[in-house]
Task: structure prediction
Amino acid sequence: MGSNVGSRLLFLATARNYIRKDLGRIVSASSVFTSKPQGFTSKYDFLNQVICLKTQASAHETLNGLQAIEQRMGRLKKSHLRYSDRNIDLDLLYFNSDCINDAALTLPHPRISERAFVLKPLMQLCSAYIDPKLLKTVNQLYRKCPHKNAVKPYSNGAPKLISIMGPIGSGKSHLASLLCKLSSAKFLREQHANNAFLLKFYKGQRTTAFNMETWFLKQHKLHFNSKLFKAHDTLLFQIIT
Result:
């Protein structure tokens, strides 16, 4: 999956949702990586991701489904250009261990070994997978691929968030404190003592549940709107369930 114009992360997320709806279950997904365009010149960098899909469709049906999703998302292929800027690009890399070569589809994808922006995310999912045509593992292909250092993990600058959920007294705070000691994370304690609805709820007044959760939601919003956190911070907080 790739995108280099517009709301790139949103396009990748939208494509994943369509794939789930139309083709099957996404078993795993790599991190998102960024790189310069390959094969053409553009001022817009690509975001790329690889997913593993479990589907009942055939290889050709899967390809047709991916192309239909591209069209649904507004992808317009320029017939005179092999490569160009695009809001979404969906390629079928492998299908089980099938080798197919016909007018509609070539599998494995014929340019995998040349594309670090494909191999690097693929390494996260199946580094030991053997390419059925080249008879080399993904790891071997990646090590020999040029320009692999130009493919970087993508971060949008937002803080990383780790949530620990559980009932009162289950050890959330203790676990969170230990994790913070082992890392540079900042602990956001849920101020449950200040929530007037919490005690009423646990005394059996179930009608206060909505107000209790709304109070916590507003506190979380205040946390995330504060200027205490910098880009790339790791935030760890507890949630009472």
About this structure: The domain at 160-240 is CATH 3.40.50.300 (Rossmann fold).
